[in-house]
Target: Stp1/IreP family PP2C-type Ser/Thr phosphatase
Amino acid sequence: METAFRSDIGKVRSHNEDCTGIFFNREQAAFAVVADGMGGHLAGDVASSMAVSAFREFWEKSEGIHTPDDAEKWLRGKIEEVNRLLFDHALHHPECSGMGTTFVGAICTRSFATIGHIGDSRCYLLNASGFKQITEDHSLVNELVRSGEITKEDAEHHPRKNVLMRAMGTELRVQVEIKSFCTEEGDALLLCSDGLSNKVSETEMENILVSGAALNDSADKLIRLANENGGEDNISVAMVLMPSGDGEGDLSC
Model:
């Protein structure tokens, strides 16, 4: 399973509130995560790094996740744990009051992927059917688009584009969307913060992914392009190229 991840401060911000990583468990299944923190002086850094560190610890100890149902149950439970961890930290550390983070995570096995997300960090899928966004932003402007009050084009320049409807750690309970789907050899997942999706079009993302370059090079190209297009925000990407599903112990989904 080929993987790559990058996080870049961008060209304008004074510090990086994004955090990303890709981790493997005892059965060599991958967990990719991107978190974009927010709230208070440096508290965004705390929220995103705490979330990613917690998921890393949980995932590296995990085992027995062989079906989409297993993965969805594990992911939902751990999201609730991490949300409570962040909420309690903010409650007992006044300097972190109001902190939170977006979250998009992907459990990747040889036969399926399970995606969970909160906020406006995204997951895209490249497969035989093409390239498409498979998460839907939990943001004010996306709700306005869905209700027909504004167009998708209007949303790109809306003054409240960064207002989120959901975030991890800001409330005791959090709503998460989780979905699973079968994968085939050569399918690719791209997870990113809005520092990438606001600056690089889906067409540009697809062109980079289908270029045949190694994932590390593709990740570098995506970061570079977002910076060339302004780089006003932190930029994070995590990418997974699915391996063959043939092998001992593989299960269909």
Helices lie at 43-60, 68-92, 140-146, 152-155, 194-197, 202-209, 215-228. Residues 247-253 have pLDDT under 50 and may be disordered. The first strand starts at residue 2 and ends at 8.
